[in-house]
Amino acid sequence: MPPANPAVDTAEVTALLERGRTLTTPVLKAAVDRLASPMDTVAAYHFGWIDALGNPADGDGGKAVRPALALLSAEAAGMPAETGVPGAVAVELVHNFSLLHDDLMDGDEQRRHRDTVWKVHGPAQAILVGDALFALANEVLLELGTVDAGRATRRLTTASRKLIDGQAQDISYEHRERVTVEECLAMEGNKTGALLACACSIGAVLGGVDERTADILESYGHHLGLAFQAVDDLLGIWGDPESTGKQTWSDLRQRKKSLPVVAALAAGGPASEKLGELLAADAKAPDFDAFSEEEFAMRAALIEEAGGREWTAQEARRQHAVAIEALGSVGMPERVRDQLTALADFVVVRRR
């Protein structure tokens, strides 16, 4: 299923992701500990540090791509990786704020192979803890008290606003019969690209890099985010539930106008027309409870037949190439450039 097949150095990428977790997690836990009870416990459950009964757990805390990028961002500016830790923590807090709210809005009952927060602790706690994590993100940066921390906070708040714009667009598209490819890319550029772009510049900004360099690093991250989301869209339909931790045909169940769906509808031809008829009828159905697995499989097959799957894979490859090209405009240690390239390669070959 991979949309590209670069030779990913798995050991190097694993080490980068693990470094991100190792340096970020203690600061992240200290920030979460500031929350009033029971929000601290609910947040700890969401991050996988405890189970639903409050017992210590070694849960799947996610891929940790954003923290890894924030630390590399600092190194791209010639600073130690540790300079980027507050930025990595802030980005992770905003990212998880969005996950808590998204799971509730989408009705997702599973994330990372376990029940979501709203399912275990209720919708109210999911909303409150999400809000608290968002506030903590700004607090972690601003308490540094430097001019560069203020610059970093401005970039983070702008990215957060774009992320929320993207989520609002995503929800509105679920109730429309047709969405253009351009609209879908703009939505995904907000919902996924903006925060990933911020992660790629925030460490450098904390290290005092100039605005032009920070903007170029953000450009790398923006296009990487679009590649990341294109792969997510493929996994949302054809991903293995054992790997993704979500239901089969997850995005189809939620009526998402993801890139494969939108591209298939725009392609024309018999499969595209049949898919359009089915989705138009689906939009009038109150829910999908009565749908069989075969009916979702048929929609997935029509999307593939119409070319939506291959178009999305090609778009992931294109966005990946643009991201790598942007790195050529920034002077940085070659080791860091190679590691940023390795992470970009990982994004387009992942299975979850």
UniProtKB/TrEMBL annotation:
Keywords: Magnesium, Metal-binding, Transferase
Matching InterPro entries: Isoprenoid_synthase_dom_sf, Polyprenyl_synt, Polyprenyl_synt_CS
PROSITE patterns cross-referenced by the UniProt entry: POLYPRENYL_SYNTHASE_1
GO biological process: isoprenoid biosynthetic process
Highest taxon in the source lineage: Bacteria
Molecular function GO labels: metal ion binding; prenyltransferase activity
Protein family (similarity comment): Belongs to the FPP/GGPP synthase family.
Protein name: Dimethylallyltranstransferase
